[in-house]
Amino acid sequence: MNVSDFIFQLQSIEEYSFSWEELLNNCTKTEVSLKRELSRLVEKNKILNLRKEFYLIIPPRYSKLRQIPIQLYANKLFKSLNKNYYLGFYSAAKFHGASHQQSQQEYVMIDYPKIGDIERNQIKLRFITTSKWPKNNVIEKKSDAGVFKISSPALTAVNLIQYQNKIGGINRMLSVIEELIEEITVDDISKLLEWYSHKSTLQRFGYLLEELGAGKEKKSLISDYLKSTKYFPVLLVPNSNQKAGKVNNKWKVDVNTILENDL
Known about the structure:
Elements: H1 3-12, E1 17-19, H2 20-26, H3 31-43, E2 47-51, E3 54-57, H4 74-80, E4 85-87, H5 89-95, E5 106-111, E6 118-120, E7 123-130, E8 138-143, E9 146-151, H6 153-162, H7 170-181, H8 186-193, H9 199-211, H10 216-227, E10 234-235, E11 253-254
Helix pairs in contact: 5-6, 6-7, 6-9, 8-10, 9-10
C-alpha cells in the first residue's frame, strides 16, 4: 500500500489525520519512498505536515482554506503527543453557541510540560498549560471523525476569566460569558466547585454573573461556597502594580475597569 491508498482508506472511515508511525505500520514501501510521496502530497496541498511526524488530510471541500476544523483531528493529535487536552476558551465557547467573539486561532488547554504553539498555513493552535487537571467539567462532543474534548460552559467561563490577561482582556470576553450563561447549568457549577480551587476567579465569576443577570440559583451556589471559606478583596482585572481597595459588593471584587459589553 502506498501513501495515497492509505489516505483514501482513512477518508473512507472519516479520519482526517495520521502519524508517521501509522504510515509505517500500514504501508509496505521503504521510509525513503514514503517520505518522497509525502513531500509530493504536501506540495499538492493534499496533506499538511502539522507537526513533526503528524499529518492532516485536506479533502477537496477544505482545499481552498488549506486547513480542516480542529474537531476532526484533535483527539489523534493529542494522543500522538501523549497529552491530556480539551478545547477551551473561545474555541469551546463556539461549540456552546457563544460565537459572538470570532477568533483567528484555536485555544487548547493541555497538561504539563508545555509545548510550543503551532502555526501552519491558516492553522494557529495556542496552547495554555495547567498544573491541576480538571476532575469534572470536561465533556465529549462528536464530530465526523469521532469524539473530541471541550470544556463545559462553566469551566469555559472561569478559564476565560482566570487567563483574561493572556487572551485579550475582560471586555473582549464579556459578551461571550453573557452568551455562555444560558448554557451554564446548576449541575455544571456544582461539579466545578468540587475541584476548582481559584477563589479569586470564582469571586470574579460570581460578580460577572450578577452583572450579566444570571439566575439566583447559579449565583447562590458560588456565594455559598465562598461564605464557607475565607476570601479577600480582589481586583476584577489582575494587576501586579495595583492592590484591591475597599469593595461594596458581596463578592469582594474591586472593579478596576469600565466594563464594556458589545453584545
